Amino acid sequence: MERRKFFFGLGALSALQVTAPLKAVNPGFSAPEKIRVPMKVKDLQVLELLGKNKYRAYYIKVITDNGLEGLYGPIDNEAVMMVNEVFKKQLIGQDPLATEDFWQRVYTNNRHSRGSYYSIGMSAIDNVLWDLKGKYLGLPVFRLLGGGSRDKLRAYASCLGFSQEPDALQEKAKSLVEQGFSHQKWFLKGGSSYMEAPGLDKNVEVVRLLREAVGDKSDLMFDASCSWDLSYAVAWAKRVEKYSPRWLEEPFQSARIESFIELAKETSISLATGEHFYGRWDSQEFLGSRAIRVVQADPEWCGGVSELLKICHIASVYGAQVIPHGHSMLTSMHVVASQPDMVCPMVEFLIEKMSGNYQYFDKNPVFPEKGLVTLSERPGFGIELDDSKIENIKVIL
Ligand SMILES: [Mg+2]
After folding, report:
1. How far does residue 223's CA lie from ligand 1's centre (Å)?
2. Long-range Cβ contact pairs of 18-26 (< 8 A, separation 24 or more)
3. Tens digits of per-residue pLDDT, 144-193?
4. Which of 59, 192, 247, 320 has the fewest C-beta atoms under 10 angstroms from its C-beta?
5. Ligand 1 centroid from CA 129, angstroms
6. 329 CA to middle of ligand 1, Å?
7. Are residues 199 and 337 in the same domain?
8. How far is Cα of residue 33 from the mean position of the Cα atoms in its chain?
């Protein structure tokens, strides 16, 4: 056993003063008959962190009756609200390792559980419980989920907010290739359904300019942010197929599955969507009807790590891929690393968001090197807050 892994395991054990988990990190250890130490959730907290320029972020913490803690964040404001109003009282006193049981119980006992805010709240709980589980067993989440062969993942450059003036566009695209990104995604402006549509010609020209800039050194993906109608999307797809885009993302809102199905019949370009999927059933419906080939469920919105894992399994049945939405990094990285490359080939790296304040309080922010992001071996998600950046911290729930 590597010295580093041994000490991570030992750290988790000393906190718990139990022997059984050592069996999980050291197969040769002769554990007593007791399989695990029962523990209950004692408290669930939302922490408000304040930093320079009044920057604010929320993290969720779960505390057990034997002193173990799970930490996850930053989480969305919607999650904060739902954790307080709905989920906290349902989690106190429960076994924090029984994540499947908790998920099923809270999903079935509320008539609005298919809604977005409910799912966002469930995701926050599920994710912090996975962090706790990792700390209990002394292993990073991606190893608990069955991964281990990949600790570096391909990240694609997600270019939201960059100039699309021809010179700037081509210069940025070339620089991303030079930085080592083998894939990049650009966002196309609204089409026919917008009052001030930029015109089809312009959205075709962006593709031509990018292919000219990167040659065959990069895959190109495009996101229409739900702003097109079927006619516009068909016309765009027919004109840009010769530039070989890897996928077209969210030409329509996910409620319009019929438009996805029709477009898929009209073009050879793979269609992608899923950042607004809540639960595994949306993925099943889109894949089963051959509407898309790439699922982009978001582990902070779809129901957490537990649910994204199920979505990966569904996608594998259809020979489709899951490349999670890049709203966050850690949960996506751990799930992707746990799956075969064929199912989960890469993660999204939203350059502007991840390079801004999003990871501000994290002592170990994730940035790609030569187009690859690296998973840590710290237990759970391995989040460590940077005390030097926290000007004020308080428990708000
Ligand atoms: Mg998108």
Report:
1. 6
2. 21/136, 21/137, 21/138, 24/137, 24/138, 24/139, 25/1, 25/137, 25/138, 25/139, 26/1
3. 999 999 999 999 999 999 999 999 999 999 999 999 999 999 999 877 65
4. 192
5. 27
6. 15
7. yes
8. 38
Q: How far away, in angstroms, is 276 Cα from ligand 1 center?
A: 9
The edge-to-edge listing of strands for the beta sheet with 69-72 is 69-72, 56-64, 41-50, 392-395
Residue 161 domain-assigned (yes or no): yes
What's the CA-to-centroid distance between 36 and ligand 1, angstroms?
42
State the residue range of the domain holding 96.
Answer: 3-140
Q: 170 and 96 in one domain?
A: no
How far does the centroid of ligand 1 lie from the alpha carbon of residue 360, in Å? 23
The reported pTM is 0.90
- Find tokens 């990190």 and name the residue: 25
d(CA 217, CA 215): 6
| Residue 317 domain-assigned (yes or no) | yes
Ligand 1 midpoint to CA 86 (Å)? 28
- The reply to whether 390 falls in a domain is no
Amino acid at 108: T
Torsion of CA 225, 178, 363, 356, to 10 degrees: -40
94 alpha carbon – ligand 1 mean position (Å): 36
